[in-house]
Structures are given as structure tokens and as C-alpha cells.
Specification:
Elements: E1 3-8, H1 14-23, E2 27-32, E3 35-40, H2 42-51, E4 59-66, H3 70-79, H4 82-85, E5 92-98, H5 106-125, E6 138-144, E7 148-154, H6 176-186, E8 194-196, H7 203-212, H8 233-246, E9 255-259, H9 262-274, E10 282-285, E11 298-302, H10 313-330, E12 334-340, H11 345-349, E13 355-361, E14 364-372
Parallel strand pairs: 5-6, 8-9, 8-11, 9-10, 11-12
Antiparallel strand pairs: 1-3, 1-4, 2-3, 4-7, 6-7, 12-14, 13-14
Helix pairs in contact: 2-8, 3-5, 6-7
Length: 380
């Protein structure tokens, strides 16, 4: 039986996510701003949670109506067969987002959806589930347009970019699904040399190593659908075993990371070990301006400091030209990709950007700049 799903993702990655969902067996794939809608059976839903590197979560559509007031939302929520999906022992959280909604208070809209859900359980079970806003078993998402409301039940639980292994705490971390998307946008392929010369906690390195070794990103965690009443445990175990069986175990990979801060290199090492990737990636304490290319050609990808994160604007204005000089000096033959919220980076670095891809890093409007470095390239 086919169900309807919506998978949100970082803005700018929708076409790549659509390809990924098709590979998981999706039907009626429709990219839209901020995500991709699709249809599929429950094997498909399990597979997306296990395999998707780009989706933030997978939402299952359980209700839809046109509305004028909060009471219409209450009637919709009370009509959904929630008791078929989970029980009163499961805690809940309601999330409401809206675009051009005429309602005066989204908090009140959230309350009425919660009331409808709880009244449904009272009528069926004689009791209602408790609310847990911190770590709920079930997340219910409502999306309001100016005239319609769609209700979704979250199949994922924690966001899918939380891969399930403990990470060293760092400031301004790059989300894993955004890092994976940038790697895909770069055209990097497993077996090709990859360098992140400002690797921080190692997000690009971990995502690349998992791609190279064909490690399903969801193997190390649990999901909300495992608590659904209709959860098919046998099917889930079959999919997990198949993913485990195809994992490669190469002794080492042509993936390299460097950072000027020894503590960041320590964080990256700890995170690689937690992800089961100890010894797969070579790490080095080194300033990006002094680093030597580990190969004659390859892909350099990085999320450099851009004012909001680490440095002042004046420092960056002086630093970007030095970065451009270092690339010209040591990385001829390399394709270089930088994610930055500083939209003037391409002017300041002194290299001609061959591509500019808009992406959202959380609330930050960013670009991925592509620089193809050739021998003897001069500053613009």
C-alpha cells in the first residue's frame, strides 16, 4: 500500500534529495522549496531513514483539510486515526509551521491540534498521551498555508543528520546532511583524493569516509517508526542486515584533514573513532596557508571562517587573498569548494569562481563557490 511522505532538507539540495529518494524506490517524486514529496510503501520509508544522507527527516502524511479557523484544525486532528499508529504510553510533541496563515496565534493553533489528538485518544482508549517537548516518542508536524493544513507523523524522531554516534562538542558545527550535499555538489567520488584543510570537528571527512565505505548513515541509531503499532520488525532487520553486509572495510582512504588548531584535530579524531572510522583518514595540524597538496589532483572542500563564526570582517578581507595565493601556489589541478555566508568571498580571494550554488546553512544565506585551479592562474 502506497503512502505519501515529505522529506525536508537544507534549501538548495532538493534536486539531489529527489535523486536519492528515487534510488530508495520512491514514486511521484516532487521537489519543492525546502524538501521533496514522494510516495512509497513502508519498506521505502524504512530505507529512506536508513540510507538518506540528505533528508532532515521523513514525514508521513496522515491528514489534510482546508481551514478558516483553529476549530477546523481541531476537527482535522480529532479525525485522524492516531490510535492505530501509536498508543497512550508514547509521549508526543506538536510542531506547527506556517506560510501566509491568517491565524493570529500559532501557539493557539498548536494547542487546538493537541486537543484534537488527545480527545481522539480519550474516545478510543479512555486516556491520552503525555506531552514531552524535549525528547518525545512521536512528533506531529502541522504545515499551514493560507487555506490548507497538512498533518504529518514523523517517522524519524531525531533529525536524520544526527547519525547516532557521540561527537565532540564544537562551536558552529556543520550539519551532516549539508556536508554530504556539498560533497555531492562537488562531484567528488569515492577513490578520488579529498582534502578539507580547515576540517574542524571533521564533518566533511566523516561523511566522505562513510560514502567511500558504503556505510548507511542510519545504521548507528534508532527511529520513531520502531515505536509505531504497525512496525514490521522482520522487514527492518532484513534491510539493516543488507546494509551491514555491503559495508566495505578499506584499510585507508585518500581522504585528508587539517586544521591550525590542535584541539580541533583532536575533536576530529575522536569523532572519526566514534563513527568507527579510526585509521581511515589522515589528519594533520597545519595552517591552510602552508599546507601541501596530498596529490597532483583532487577535490578540496571546506567551511572556512566567515565572520559569523570565528573572525572579524577586517581579518577575513586580509586573509582571503592569502588563501587564493596559497591555492594558486600549491593546488594546480584541484577543484576547490568553499561554503561561506560571506557572499563577497569570490571577489576577495582573487580567483574566478566557475560556479556559485546557493545553499542555506540553518538561517544563513550561503554560497558554495567552485574554484578550478590551473597552473599559472593569475589573480583577477
Amino acid at each position: 500500500m502506497s503512502e505519501t511522505f515529505f522529506a525536508p532538507c537544507p534549501r538548495g539540495l532538493e534536486p539531489l534529495l529527489a535523486e536519492e529518494l528515487r534510488a530508495c524506490g520512491a514514486h511521484r517524486v516532487e521537489p519543492t522549496l525546502g524538501g521533496v514529496s514522494s510516495e512509497g510503501d513502508w519498506a521505502y520509508a524504512y530505507r529512506v531513514n536508513l540510507e538518506s544522507r540528505l533528508a532532515t527527516r521523513l514525514l508521513w502524511k496522515v491528514g489534510f483539510t482546508r481551514y478558516r479557523s483553529e476549530e477546523d484544525l481541531y476537527r482535522l486532528a480529532s479525525s485522524v486515526a492516531w490510535a492505530r499508529h501509536f498508543d497512550t504510553i508514547n509521549t508526543i510533541r506538536i510542531n506547527v509551521t506556517a506560510i501566509k496563515s491568517p491565524l493570529k496565534s500559532l501557539n493557539f493553533a498548536t494547542l487546538r491540534i493537541k486537543d484534537g489528538l488527545c480527545d481522539h485518544f480519550r474516545s478510543i482508549r479512555g486516556a491520552r498521551p503525555d506531552v514531552d517537548t524535549a525528547s518525545p516518542d512521536m512528533r506531529i508536524h502541522a504545515f499551514l498555508t493560507d487555506v490548507t493544513c497538512t498533518l504529518y507523523l514523523d517517522t524519524s524522531g531525531e533529525p536524520l543528520y544526527k547519525r547516532g554516534f557521540k561527537r565532540a562538542k564544537v562551536s558552529a558545527p556543520l550539519k551532516e546532511n549539508l556536508a554530504a550535499g556539498i560533497l555531492m555538489l562537488s562531484g567528488w567520488q569515492p577513490g578520488q583524493t579529498l582534502l578539507d584543510p580547515m576540517c574542524g570537528s571533521g564533518t566533511f571527512l566523516i561523511e566522505a569516509a562513510q560514502m567511500a565505505l558504503d556505510v548507511a548513515p542510519g545504521l548507528g541509531r534508532s527511529f520513531a517508526f520502531e515505536k509505531f503499532r504497525h512496525f514490521d520488525a522482520a522487514l527492518w532487520q532484513t534491510l539493516r542486515r543488507a546494509a551491514l553486509a555491503r559495508r566495505r572495510d578499506d584499510a585507508e582512504l585518500p581522504i585528508f584533514g587539517a586544521d591550525i588548531d590542535p584541539q580541533q584535530i583532536g575533536n576530529a579524531q575522536a569523532n572519526l573513532e566514534a563513527a568507527g572510522l579510526a585509521g581511515k583518514v589522515e589528519l594533520l595540524v597545519c595552517d591552510v596557508l602552508d599546507i601541501e597538496a596530498p596529490d597532483d589532483a583532487g577535490v578540496l572542500v571546506s567551511n572556512p571562517p566567515y565572520g559569523v563564526r570565528l573572525s572579524s570582517g577586517e581579518e577575513l578581507q586580509a586573509w582571503y587573498p592569502r588563501l587564493g595565493d596559497a591555492l594558486k601556489r600549491g593546488f594546480a589541478g584541484w577543484n576547490c569548494y568553499f561554503l561561506t555566508a560571506d557572499l563577497e568571498m569570490a571577489k576577495r580571494i582573487g580567483l574566478k569562481a566557475s560556479k556559485r550554488t546557493p545553499l542555506m546553512n540553518g538561517d544563513l544565506d550561503c554560497r558554495v563557490f567552485e574554484f578550478k585551479v590551473v597552473a599559472g592562474q593569475n589573480r583577477a
